[in-house]
Design brief:
The chain is of the alpha+beta class. It has three domains: 2-137, Beta-Lactamase, CATH 3.30.450; 198-284, Signal transduction histidine kinase, dimerisation/phosphotransfer (DHp) domain (Helix Hairpins, Orthogonal Bundle), CATH 1.10.287; 291-437, Heat Shock Protein 90, CATH 3.30.565.10. The protein is built from eight helices and twelve strands. It has helices at 2-47, 51-64, 132-184, 198-246, 253-283, 296-309, 331-347, 405-415; strands at 68-75, 80-85, 101-105, 108-117, 120-130, 291-295, 314-319, 326-330, 353-361, 365-372, 419-424, 430-437. The strands form three sheets. It has a five-stranded antiparallel sheet with strand order 2-1-5-4-3, covered by helices on one side. A five-stranded mixed sheet has the order 7-9-10-12-11, covered by helices on one side. Strand 1 (68-75) and strand 2 form a beta hairpin. Bound molecules: adenosine-5'-diphosphate. Adenosine-5'-diphosphate binds next to helix 7 and helix 8.
Length: 446
Amino acid sequence: MISSVLVLGLCFAAFVITDIKGYKEREVNHALSIAQVIGVNDIPAIQFLDNDAAGKTLSELQKVQEDIVNATIFDKNENVFAHYTKPGNAPCKFYPPFVDRYLFKDNFLYVYKTITKNNELFGTVCLQLELSELQQIKDQSFQMGGVLLLIGIMLAFLLAMINQQYISKPILSLVNVMKEVRENENYNMQVPIEGKDEIGKLSLEFNSLMEQIILSHQKKDEFIGIASHELKTPLTSSKGFLELLNNNDQLDPQTKLFVQKALNSTNKLQDLIYDLLDVSKIQAGQLQLNIREFDIDKLIDECIHEVQIGTSAHNIIKEGGMVNAAIFADRGRIEQVLINLLSNAVKYSPKGGRIIVHAKRTESKIIVSVKDFGIGLPMSELEKIFDRFYRSKQKESGTVGFGLGLYICAQIIKRHNGKIWVESEAGNGSTFYFELPIKAELVITI
Ligand code: ADP
């Protein structure tokens, strides 16, 4: 629209300038021919020094040309020979050089025309003409230009709207899809391909890019699955040997320390491999649940005990009493979720302190929460932390990890037809909640 208005404006300016120029040219030619006629007719009067006759010719001018305001005939010595001023107007002075020329000044045209016959100079006729039509022409041009500009703007607006339909709209829809892909990592998104033009090509390329991303994700998942599976067996056997060594009382203290360190590292490695195996099972839709009835209070106590052994800086407390509910779920997997939440509560409370576990039951559900008073999480990250490989951007977290634990927890709870969420504030600790159906028929595993 801006370019259309600019082009229209330029065209309009060119049109006005040409119009005014044409009018001025016409006026000059006309005035010159009048001056010529006056000069030729007044040669005898000049020759016989008859000022009155010349003056009369000049005053007669008014009848032919109303725009003439002043007219002066100079003799060849540049002295005023005859002069006329239109009644009601101020007389004007004409200045040398008295040669054939014209000039525009203050809405007046000044014309100088020498009077010659057979190459003999008799004097100069000077005319001052009022450019009365100039303002009219300007006004008309501006009115017409304004109307044209308005029509042009409306047309440009209409074209812009049509353009929007065919160009901007598909681009905007592509931008929206890209935003959705970026925000939700949903690579299954495709854009409709309309036409074979540049936008069609862009959409086609975008779709194949998405397909390629999905393919590379599949390859990566496949690799993670195979690699973790292949690592599992040798790691289990070396862990077994290390445990045997650790149980050997005949080891000297330094060797025992080394064995314990090796065992710790092996345990961490094994945790990671199990996490990776779980992730590939989830990705492949092969996470099997072994649903049976168990006592949730007992499981919570066991998990608290297990995590408490690993830390002396934290005090893990159970609040709210017993739930007294036997729930139908995969005990091993729910234990995994609880251990994960409790370990995170320890890991992200570097200054130590209390960790509160709370469980309650409603008619059909149990709700378990793990509250810590650690580094907390900013609002912007609350939704993302359950995503695969997501780790907090907070510098204070300063811990190592892969961002898989909460993803696995969320998937396990989802498979139990439950819900997981977090309430947190940066610097003020976090509370992680999960909710599970109590009754077996509600545990619909997907
Ligand atoms: P990891 O701990 O291995 O990074 P998780 O999936 O368990 O992976 O956690 C994902 C991210 O969520 C962590 O990187 C951490 O930033 C954040 N997080 C998890 N639990 C807590 C918590 N209790 N307090 C603060 N941040 C947490």
